[in-house]
Design brief:
This protein is mainly alpha-helical and 256 residues long. It has a single domain, classed as P1 Nuclease. The chain contains 13 helices and 2 strands, in the order H-H-H-H-H-H-H-H-E-E-H-H-H-H-H. It has a two-stranded antiparallel sheet with strand order 1-2. Helix 2 packs across helix 8 and helix 3 packs across helix 13. 38% of the residues are buried.
Length: 256
Amino acid sequence: MKRILSLFLLSLIIVSGFAYDATGHRIVADIAYKNLTPKAKSAVDKLLGKQGIVFESTWADEVRSDNQYKYSYQWHYQNLKDSMTNADLEKLMKNPTSEGEHLFFAIDQMKTRISKDKNDVEALKFLVHFMADFHQPMHLGRAADLGGNKTEVKWFGKTINMHSLWDSYMIESQGYTYSEYSNYLQNKFEKQSTKLKQETLLQSLYAVYGVRNKILYYNYADTNNYHYTYLLSDNLDEMLYRGGIQLAKVLNELYK
């Protein structure tokens, strides 16, 4: 019994270290849901249940504990080099398997699957999850430290890794439920929404990569976590909002 409990706790640690936590994924999915066209919303509700997009948004993390889905583990991230240009990023997006089958490949594959079969529920659930992962800057991190998983930082007296800081701790520090956070972000970005809705996924990638570099090159000798939150919380908010808008865009196109 103790062994089973230990393995269960270990699985929770592994899962929590590799994607926006449940709150983050639900925020992205909720923003997307509120920006779906009536036709896309009807199609998504039919496949996942009413607002099921929100509650299925963590499915892709949960199934990694199933050996049948071990192949999907590397789909949750895309290792990027430092100092990449926009041209470099565009080239990788257009040739997603050039560095292995990772996040860019997975998003492309799920879009292709859905375009061929509008009832492909599995592809839809993967896509909902991966579009959020795409907008979590540490999912586009360095291969050497596993997207921040091997880099320790201090967070209000606690030693955590940089990946979990952006998966969970930064979001939790806001003190919102996923629905409260979603509503807050839609109000916050209302004036920018038209512009952001016009941007392509590639343009969104440029923004995520910029935040990714800002995180990695931050002076962590500054251990004032209130200062860190003050400087970077707007970036976190933008990434979550962008994730929702880009997810809505792709679903609106697939189910038009």
